[in-house]
Design goal:
Layout lengths: L1 E5 L5 E5 L5 E6 L10 E6 L5 E5 L2 E6 L4 E5 L14 E6 L5 E5 L3 E6 L4 E5 L2 E2 L10 E8 L2 E6 L3 E6 L4 E5 L13
Parallel strand pairs: 12-16
Antiparallel strand pairs: 1-2, 2-3, 4-5, 5-6, 6-7, 8-9, 9-10, 10-11, 13-14, 14-15, 15-16
C-alpha cells in the first residue's frame, strides 16, 4: 500500500491499498488545535512515515500507531522557531535529508538518532546558498540535487559538503517545481 496526507480542514494520514482503496484514516496529532499544514511525506525504509509540515516534522510509527512531533527548534539556526519543511528524501545510507523552506538543509542519521544542520560551500566559496533550498532529489549515495529560490539547481557532494551550481539559462530556482 501507500501513504498519503491531507492538509487544511481534515489533517490526516491515510493508508491506501495497491488498488487505491482506503485502508485507514488516522487524524494527525492536535490537528484541530494547532495551526500547521502537512505538505510533504516520506516512508522511510524502516517503515516510519515522516510528514513535513509548516512547523517541523511529525513522525508516525505504524508498528505502534504512535506519532512523535519534532519541531526542530533545538537547531540553533532556527532561533527557537520550527521550520517549514519543503522537501524530504532518504539517501541510500538510510539518512534523511530535509529542505527547510528558506532556512537551510538538515539531515537525520537513524544510526545516531541526531539531526544536523548543514553548511556547505558553493564552487566560489559562497556559503549563503543553503538558506533558500526548495527541493531535494537523491542522485546516488553521495550526491543530492537541490533547487534554490534564486540560484537555480545545484548538486551537493555529501562527502565533502561542496555544492556545484548547475545553470539553466534565464531560469531562477523558484521557476522550477522540483528536479
Amino acid at each position: 500500500g501507500y501513504w498519503a496526507v491531507r492538509h487544511y480542514a481534515h489533517r490526516a494520514l491515510f493508508k491506501i491499498g495497491a488498488d487505491g482503496e482506503l485502508l485507514d484514516s488516522i487524524p494527525l496529532p492536535n490537528a484541530t488545535l494547532e495551526i500547521y499544514e502537512p505538505f510533504r511525506i516520506l516512508q522511510h525504509s524502516d517503515g516510519k512515515v515522516w510528514i513535513g509540515t509548516t512547523t517541523g516534522l511529525v513522525i508516525y510509527d505504524p508498528t505502534t500507531g504512535s506519532f512523535q512531533r519534532e519541531p526542530l527548534t533545538s537547531i540553533p539556526r532556527f532561533n527557537g522557531r520550527p521550520p517549514d519543511i519543503s522537501s524530504i528524501i532518504e539517501q541510500p545510507d538510510r539518512s534523511i535529508w530535509i529542505a527547510c523552506h528558506h532556512e537551510g538543509v538538515i539531515s537525520f542519521s537513524p544510526a545516531e538518532g541526531k539531526f544536523r544542520f548543514h553548511e556547505f560551500e558553493r564552487e566560489h566559496g559562497d556559503s549563503s546558498a543553503h538558506h533558500a533550498c526548495e527541493s531535494l532529489l537523491s542522485f546516488d549515495k553521495d550526491h543530492i540535487a537541490m533547487t534554490f529560490t534564486r540560484d537555480g539547481i545545484g548538486v551537493l557532494d555529501t562527502r565533502t559538503m561542496r555544492l556545484a551550481k548547475l545553470t539553466i539559462r534565464d531560469t531562477a530556482g523558484m521557476d522550477l517545481s522540483e528536479v
